[in-house]
Amino acid sequence: MTILQGESVRLRPATLDDVPELARVRATPEVQRRWRGGDDMVAAVLEDFREQDTTAYVIELDGRVVGWIQWQAEEEPDYRHASMDIYVDPAVHGRGVGTDAVRTLARHLIDDHGYHRLTIDPAADNAAAIRAYTKPTRTIPAKLRKALEARYPTCGVRGCANDQFLEIDHVVPVADRGCTEIGNVWRLCSHHHRLKTYGGWIVIGQNGDRDLVPPDDPDPP
């Protein structure tokens, strides 16, 4: 299993070392109401690990475990598809974590496993989950992703040589009608991505020669 990098989350193969954090998330009232599991959440999480024919990842945000996402395959030729299921720590609800995790896993299932049909089945009364799974996506086409990897082999910020787990960033956010095209996306390390997204740092320069400066830069763009 490979590590899957989304725009803000990282999906890492789940291990037994993750059980305490997963049990903590499973014990929150919001998650327990949907996933159940009784009074012993450690036992419930271990049961998830034992589920046959399931591939499981933990969802990481800013280096910490905030949820679980899994998929299963139906390989009958007439019905071949993959199904997904997910839970996310309520402490990070509203930050697009579920949407990014589902999108990242879906891209992996389509691009790497060749599935053409994916399913996910939130409860009919779980309006927040339904909104998360049906909102407009920021999916990066494979051809564009490869072009970005060639243009930004390291973090796009000048002087940053980080080439690990780079995240794709929209210069003009999708929420502000930014397009998913080569002129509006670049790759950043998680540190600089957080500065831009949450710290108000400003993108300067042109496509292929950009930089990131703090909001109080004495010589703003």
Overview of this structure, please?
The chain has 221 residues and is an alpha+beta fold. 30% of the residues lie in helices and 25% in strands. The chain has two domains: 131 residues, Gcn5-related N-acetyltransferase (GNAT) (Aminopeptidase, 3-Layer(aba) Sandwich); 72 residues, no CATH class. The strands form three sheets. Strands 1-2-3-4-5-6 form a six-stranded mixed sheet, with helices on both faces. Helix 4 crosses helix 5. It is globular. The N and C termini lie far apart (43 Å).
Please state the second-level CATH architecture of the largest domain: 3-Layer(aba) Sandwich
User: How many beta-strand segments?
Assistant: 10
- Structural class, judged by helices and strands? alpha+beta
Main sheet strand line-up: 1-2-3-4-5-6
Q: Please write the CATH class name of the largest domain.
A: Alpha Beta
Q: State mean pLDDT (0 to 100 scale).
A: 88
Helix coverage percent of residues? 25-40%
Low-confidence stretches: none
What is the chains' assembly state? single chain
Strand content: 15-25%
Described by the principal axes of the CA atoms, the overall outline is globular
**Biggest pleated sheet:** 6 strands, mixed
Q: Tally the structural domains.
A: 2
Element-level helix/strand string: EEHHHEEEHEHHEEHEE
How many separate helices?
7
Instruction: State the CATH topology of the largest domain.
Output: Aminopeptidase
The CATH superfamily of the largest domain is: Gcn5-related N-acetyltransferase (GNAT)
Distance between the termini: 43 Å
